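Input structure tokens:
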């Protein structure tokens, strides 16, 4: 229906066609709209008033010369007139049906064809005749719609009066109570924000203390690492010296054996003298070259697990540190 109404609407006045006239270009407009267009053209070209007046189509902008007979010269669109009249009658009938349906009582949800025309006092709801005779509202107290409306109207009036008395009467006013609650809420929000700031400061201090303690412990670990590295370097250096001397003494022993086999007593005894001295020194150095691994303590379980377990949370700065 909406699309049909668009087709039956004049493009100038945007209303249903009234006495539609057809231009030579086949476009159709209301006679009254064409008269307005023609009047504007006559005012624009006053010298043509007694002659043919040019008329421009509002849709395609094509120019036509209107004869002196005026718009009566243009043919009437009889088919369009009939369609518009039929459409208006249909619209009128539809409005009448809508008015009739709006005046009809609403239908029962359980019995769709039955109107809700009785008020059930027991359940305080509208019901139909089938609900009273066949449905779940059998044997309930009922009253007519007029009586129910009158009674509920009195209830509404009394309730409204009571509500007005609450705000206007001598009793406790709701506005001051509302303002008081809003003020309490604002104060509560301020208190919560203050508490949140204190909590943030507390945990910031904890993080600061923990950071300092962690830095101190890590410095101790680095010092322990340097101490162990130096100790092992010394032990490794001593042991390498003993191994080098061991190889040198073995070489000297071989030279002494060669001199003995060659029958050179002087050379043998000289080398044997040197061998004996270095051999005794090597034995003494080998006994001394057994270094113990560097000690590492205290261990983390001594000061973190045992020492820190009894430290209060707010006194982390006093927690024991390794020395």
């Amino acid at each position: 229906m909406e699309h049909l109404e668009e087709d039956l609407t004049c493009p100038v006045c945007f209303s249903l066609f009234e006495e539609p006239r057809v231009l030579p270009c086949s476009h159709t407009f209301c006679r009254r709209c064409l008269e307005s267009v023609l009047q504007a053209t006559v005012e624009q070209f006053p010298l043509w008033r007694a002659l043919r007046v040019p008329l421009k189509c509002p849709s395609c902008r094509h120019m036509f010369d209107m004869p002196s007979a005026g718009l009566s010269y243009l043919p009437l669109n009889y088919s369009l007139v009939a369609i518009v009249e039929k459409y208006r009658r249909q619209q009128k009938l539809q409005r009448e049906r809508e008015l009739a349906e709006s005046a009809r009582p609403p239908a029962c949800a359980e019995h769709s064809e039955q109107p809700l025309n009785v008020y059930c006092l027991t359940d305080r709801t509208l019901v139909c005749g089938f609900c009273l005779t066949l449905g779940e509202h059998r044997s309930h107290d009922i009253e007519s719609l007029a009586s129910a409306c009158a009674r509920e109207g009195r209830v509404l009036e009394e309730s409204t009066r009571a509500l007005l008395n609450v705000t206007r009467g001598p009793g406790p006013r709701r506005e001051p109570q509302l303002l008081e609650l809003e003020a309490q809420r604002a104060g509560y929000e301020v208190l919560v924000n203050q508490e949140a700031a204190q909590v943030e400061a507390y945990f910031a201090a904890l993080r600061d203390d923990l950071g300092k303690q962690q830095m101190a412990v890590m410095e101790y670990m680095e010092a322990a690492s340097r101490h162990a590295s130096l100790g092992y370097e010394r032990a490794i250096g001593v042991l390498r010296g003993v191994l080098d001397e061991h190889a040198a003494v073995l070489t000297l022993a071989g030279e002494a054996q060669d001199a003995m086999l060659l029958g050179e007593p002087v050379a043998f005894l000289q080398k044997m003298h040197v061998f004996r001295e270095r051999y005794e020194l090597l034995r003494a150095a080998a006994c001394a070259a057994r270094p113990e691994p560097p000690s590492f303590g205290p261990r983390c379980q001594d000061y973190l697990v045992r020492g820190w377990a009894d430290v209060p949370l707010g006194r982390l700065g006093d927690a024991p540190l390794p020395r």
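DSSP finds eight helices and seven strands in the chain. The helical segments are 2-7, 31-44, 78-103, 129-133, 145-168, 174-261, 265-288, 300-307.
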